[in-house]
Amino acid sequence: MRLLIIAAGKIKERGLRDLIDDYLDRVGRHVRCQEVELRDTKDMESSFRSSIPPDAFTIALEVDGEALTSEQLSRLMVKRGSENKGIVAFLIGGADGLPPRLSQQAHMRLSLSKMTLAHRVARVVLAEQLYRAVSIWKGEPYHRP
Fold it and tell me: For domain 2-138, which CATH number applies: 3.30.1360.70, 1.10.443.10, 3.10.129.10, 3.40.1280.10?
C-alpha cells in the first residue's frame, strides 16, 4: 500500500507543519506515505492530474462527500491498497476547493466534516485520520472506539 496526499498550497505555519509531519512519519512506519504540495496556478487541474500516479485510487476531499468512520476508512484503505498498484491518493484543494471536474472524476468523494475546513486544517485532520486508520489495521492501541 502507498498513500499519497496531493494538496494545493504549501503549509508554512510551523506548528501545523510539525503536526502533519509527525502523523505522516507515524504512518510511514507501516506503509509508504508521501505528501505533494502543489503551487497555486491558474490551471490547478493539470497540476493535480500530473501528480496522480496511473492506477491510483483517487479520493477527493469535499464537504459534501461521503462521511466514513475511522474503521470504515481503515477498511477502505486496506481494500484499495491491495488493488492495482496499491496507491490511494487523497486530493485536497486550496481556498477555492478542488477543480470541479477533478472532484467529479475521482473514484470517491470523502468528507472529513460537514463543516467547511480551511485546507490547512483539513490536511492536519487527514494526516491524523490516516495514522488512526493504519493503527486500526495494524491492531495498535492508538484508536479507542
Answer: 3.40.1280.10
